[in-house]
Amino acid sequence: MKKKRLALLVVGAMLCSALVGCTKTYATDLMDGVKEGTPTEVQVQEETWEGMQDFSVKLLQTTCDEEENTLVSPMSVLSALAMTANGARGETRAQMEDVLGGSVEQLNGALAGLGQEEDSPLYLANSIWFAEGGGITPNPDFLQVNADCYRAGVFEAPFDQTTVTDINRWVKEHTHGMVEEILKEIPRDTVMYLINTLAFEAEWENPYENSDVWQQAFTNQEGKVQQVSMLHSEEQFYLRDDQAQGFMKCYQGGRYAFVALLPDKGISVLDYVEGLDGQQLKELLEDPTSVPVTVTMPKFESEMEVDLREVLKEMEMVLPFDSAQADFTGLGTSPEGNLFINQVFHKAYLEVQETGTRGGAATAVEINCEGAFQEPEDQKVVTLDRPFVYLVVDTSSMLPVFMGTVLSV
Fold it and tell me: Signal as a keyword (predicted)?
């Protein structure tokens, strides 16, 4: 008899609470015996932050489009895959660690504390859903580490259309409406979902007034001139490397900042992105020049949906996708066969406007079962009136929450 294909989706982007706020669900709480504890304290090494930064840059490089705006949430993808890696063993685990930038223990330590500050603009949520009679026995240690590090609630549901509604409602609520849907239907053989969501809503430290906004020309990647709403301000953190200049603009509280990098004339956004590496970007962000900067940037809204399977394989995460050789026995067991990653879906949304920035993201890992500042300089001017690269970063680690390119507005 042909082996039954069982699908497991790990849907991710950052985490914070379990199942809350749903009007009505048909799910049963399975957290009895799996109580949230305090994560084992881990001293996150500098090499891990650099590794995650490098993953972030490679993710942008492999998704960057020559013709369309690009938007990804490295923090979301890292979180989803790091959670999945907790269930990986042997060479599968080692390969995931190599690509993600650190050991699973280091990744857990780095990601567990994100968005935990009071009144943080970064909102994180996580939940795990099992199909009733789904034919998979989850590893209790896997559930425990997700409860401890990621505060994941665990639920059993019928995995019919009511569960689709429940999950989509949960995702929409925890992304504050910015990702409205992650599932259209649940395949007959799906047995498990790990669902992470990320929402970011921050006001500028120095917001724009109406008088700071006016129409101005933006020349897109095709050389066509668009008249768009431009935001004008005086900033104080200037960035410069050998191929681009830019600025850093803080959100309220100073923990998070918007970064824009404008390649020098004659250098395309794609070429600039291709030349980046994680260490170079981290060093650039950690060492801005304190100098007045006259900034002009467009209001913009960006949205992207991408399948990361081939992207991750290009980044040399290959073994976890191998149906015969992948080892996810730490996640759980199934009498139907071996667990492996089948697909990785990613959705992201970001809006930059006068008052601040709001964005949401979700990442879905589908697993199947089968067989300091420098001295001031002169006034600087950064006018984003042509294609540019941007980031929203956590300034404590310089880990990107979002990364993208604007080719047209």
Answer: yes
- Amino acid code (one letter) for 222: E
DSSP, collapsed to helix, strand or coil, labels residue 175 as coil
Kind of pairing between the strands at 289-298 and 244-250: unpaired
What domains are defined for the chain? 6-202+302-369 (3.30.497.10), 205-299+374-406 (2.30.39.10)
> Rounded to whole angstroms, how far apart are CA atoms 183 and 190?
12
Q: Are strands 300-307 and 256-263 parallel, antiparallel or unpaired?
A: unpaired
H or E stretch covering 269: helix 269-274
According to DSSP, the β-strands at 6-12 and 356-369 are: antiparallel
Residue 179, CB-side half-sphere exposure with 13 Å CA sphere: 32
CA distance linking residue 90 with residue 42, whole number of Å: 22
Per-residue pLDDT reduced to its tens digit, 50-93: 999 999 999 999 999 888 999 999 999 999 899 899 999 999 99
What is the C-alpha separation between 377 and 397, in angstroms, rounded? 26
pTM score: 0.88
> Exposure string (b/e) for 23-38, b if CB count within 10 Å is 16 or more?
eebebeebbeebebee
The Cβ of residue 363 has, within 10 Å, a number of other Cβ atoms equal to 32
pLDDT in tens, 158-195: 879 998 889 888 889 999 999 998 888 877 767 778 78
